[in-house]
């Protein structure tokens, strides 16, 4: 069934688990991720990076169709959504939620831009996630700015956002070096901030770290890199090379690998069996 991710996250927050959020770019991927969530009876959030499919409106229709038919709750959110036009496009494409990431801007500008889109989104029942502090790229921790709890509380009150992405030591893309998550900071944020918390840059952070973060108050875990990596790895595997005419079944191989990754991420999040 198609639901807003805010609904799924609120239940997760109450019950102490995390809803997995997985990147999606085309129909094969979409079906693989939904199959994984159905097999594990887990709620699912789909992340869409603007431009990853040639036609957001048509892809939006496919997502809505398959999500509606799914036996578990499925949401579709625009991930990051750096431009105003992207957010409007996603809403027009039927997305249940948008992320409005203005975390690289100064605080006041972040508040102003998020607030404007919250007003539009809420008018038609679309949920909004924003980010305070900043999660950098590729394990370059010098780009990271940890979230300050008192500022986060104020930000949520001023903007009216439904969910907040926080920076506690993860990084987007492939992690270089040893990840060090600030669990004390996460616990403080969980106590201080009234809306569900989101963790970006989950790939390469380590299952143990992520499971702990899920238990301590992260209600949505974003994973993207690992899905592309698992699809690439399988077509370079011996199994693929040794299968006659494997090329014709290439998308099947990739889908199977991505479904396995999805099921693994669900186990890490503790969301198996939680779909109602
Ligand atoms: Zn992100």
Explain how this protein is built.
With 276 residues, this protein is of the alpha/beta class. The protein has one domain (5-269): TIM Barrel. It has helices at residues 5-15, 27-40, 56-69, 84-92, 107-123, 149-159, 183-192, 207-215, 225-235, 238-241, 250-269, and strands at 19-23, 44-49, 74-79, 97-100, 127-132, 163-166, 197-199, 218-223. Helix 6 (149-159) runs parallel beside helix 7 (183-192). The structure holds zinc ion (ZN). Zinc ion binds at residues 80, 172, 200, 222.
How is the secondary structure organized here?
Layout: H1 5-15, E1 19-23, H2 27-40, E2 44-49, H3 56-69, E3 74-79, H4 84-92, E4 97-100, H5 107-123, E5 127-132, H6 149-159, E6 163-166, H7 183-192, E7 197-199, H8 207-215, E8 218-223, H9 225-235, H10 238-241, H11 250-269
Parallel strand pairs: 1-2, 1-8, 2-3, 3-4, 4-5, 5-6, 6-7, 7-8
Helix pairs in contact: 2-3, 2-11, 6-7, 9-11
The protein binds zinc ion (ZN).
Zinc ion binds near residues 80, 172 and 200.
Features:
8-stranded parallel β-barrel; TIM Barrel; 47% helix; single chain; 11 helices; 276 residues; alpha/beta; binds zinc ion
How is the main sheet built? 8 strands, parallel, barrel
What's the number of extended β-strand segments?
A: 8
Shape: globular
Strand order of the largest sheet: 1-2-3-4-5-6-7-8
Span between termini:
10 Å
Summarize the structure.
This protein has 276 residues and is α/β, with parallel strands linked by helices.
């Amino acid at each position: 069934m198609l639901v807003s991710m805010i609904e799924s996250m609120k239940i997760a927050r109450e019950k102490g688990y995390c809803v997995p959020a997985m990147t999606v770019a085309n129909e094969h991927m979409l079906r693989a991720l939904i199959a994984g969530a159905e097999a594990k009876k887990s709620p699912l959030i789909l992340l869409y990076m603007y431009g990853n499919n040639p036609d957001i409106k048509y892809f939006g229709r496919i997502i809505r169709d398959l999500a509606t038919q799914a036996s578990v709750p499925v949401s579709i959110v625009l991930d990051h959504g750096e431009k105003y036009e992207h957010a409007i496009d996603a809403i027009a494409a039927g997305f249940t939620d948008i992320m409005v990431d203005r975390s690289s801007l100064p605080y006041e500008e972040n508040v102003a831009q998020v607030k404007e889109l919250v007003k539009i989104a809420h008018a038609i029942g679309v949920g909004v996630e924003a980010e305070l502090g900043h999660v950098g790229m590729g394990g370059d921790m010098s780009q990271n700015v940890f979230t300050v709890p008192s500022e986060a509380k104020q930000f949520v009150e001023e903007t009216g956002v439904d969910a907040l992405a926080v920076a506690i030591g993860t990084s987007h893309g492939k992690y270089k070096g040893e990840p060090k998550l600030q669990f004390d900071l996460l616990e403080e944020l969980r106590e201080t901030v009234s809306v569900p918390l989101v963790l970006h840059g989950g790939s390469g952070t380590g299952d143990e770290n992520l499971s702990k973060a899920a238990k301590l108050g992260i209600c949505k875990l974003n994973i993207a890199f690992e899905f592309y990596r698992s699809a690439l790895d399988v077509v370079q595997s011996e199994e693929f090379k040794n299968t006659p005419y494997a090329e014709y079944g290439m998308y099947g191989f990739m889908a199977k690998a991505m479904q396995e990754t999805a099921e693994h991420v669900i186990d890490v999040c503790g969301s198996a069996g939680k779909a109602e």
